[in-house]
Design a protein that fits this description.
The protein contains eight helices and seven strands; from the N terminus they run H-H-E-H-E-H-E-H-E-H-E-H-E-E-H. The longest helix has 26 residues. It has one domain: 3-Layer(aba) Sandwich (Glycerol-3-phosphate (1)-acyltransferase). Helix content is about 45%, strand content about 15%.
Length: about 240
């Protein structure tokens, strides 16, 4: 019963939050700090509704000067509410072009300044990546990427795609691995306290002086650090 009540209340709150975020984005369209504000509006009250406790261990990321590339694991659609509270200042994300047409969320996502990629068109995808590199180099803006490219459903990290690492090398900016503990299979929304989630940044990985020949090793290094980080979180929460 509690599970159903939470879903109904969350659905109503999503509409309220979307209205608030529309106002934010329409008053300052495509401002790269919109994502931080909109993420907080979606996330902070929703976590209370869901009975989830989130421990943010991201002070190092917040102290890191822009620009950088955040590489984070992607578990489910709940990430909107779970990770929204962790978005740092002037940070936009990469998303597939089809997100733009999701009612309410898609239009806010676009107006918040996030970068949409047409994965089915190689030329347009390349142009979007070049734009992203330019944004990082000249607009004091960081990029948030889910390198798996899709949801892993809390079943461990999927193989990484190249985009985030290519952008970081081309822009000469560090990569910050961000680990969100496995909540997909552990949260229990039918309980008053549905679970605890830890969101933690790992040590930045510098890309200065790297070329695209170094990309496979960079991807493997980042992935292995995140695998170890997620395993440590599982032990911490067990």
């Amino acid at each position: 019963m509690l599970y159903l009540i939470r879903l109904i209340v969350l659905g109503l709150y999503f509409l309220v939050a979307s209205a608030i975020n529309f106002v934010i984005c329409l008053s300052r369209p495509f401002n790269p700090d919109n994502s931080r504000l909109c993420g907080w509006v979606y996330s902070a009250p929703a976590l209370r509704i869901l009975g989830l406790t989130v421990r943010l261990e991201t002070a190092d990321m917040l102290a890191q000067p822009n620009p950088f590339v955040i590489v984070c694991n992607h578990q489910s659609n709940w990430d909107l509410f779970v990770l929204g509270c962790a978005v740092p200042r002037r940070t936009v994300s990469l998303g597939k072009k089809s997100l733009k047409w999701i009612p309410f969320f898609g239009q806010i996502y676009w107006l918040a300044g996030n970068i949409l990629i047409d994965r089915g068109n190689a030329f347009k995808a390349k142009q979007a990546m070049l734009k992203t590199t330019d944004v990082m180099q000249h607009e004091d803006t960081s990029i948030w990427v889910f390198p798996e490219g899709t949801r892993n459903l809390g079943q461990g990290l999927l193989p990484f795609k190249k985009g985030a690492f290519q952008m970081a090398i081309n822009a000469g900016v560090p990569i910050i691995p961000l680990c969100c503990s496995n909540y997909k299979s552990s949260m229990q929304l039918n309980r008053w306290h549905s679970g605890t989630i830890v969101i933690k940044t790992l040590l930045p990985i510098a890309t200065t002086g790297m070329t695209l020949d170094d990309m496979p090793a960079l991807m493997e290094r980042c992935r292995m650090q995140m695998v170890a980080g997620l395993a440590a979180q599982d032990v911490q929460l067990s």
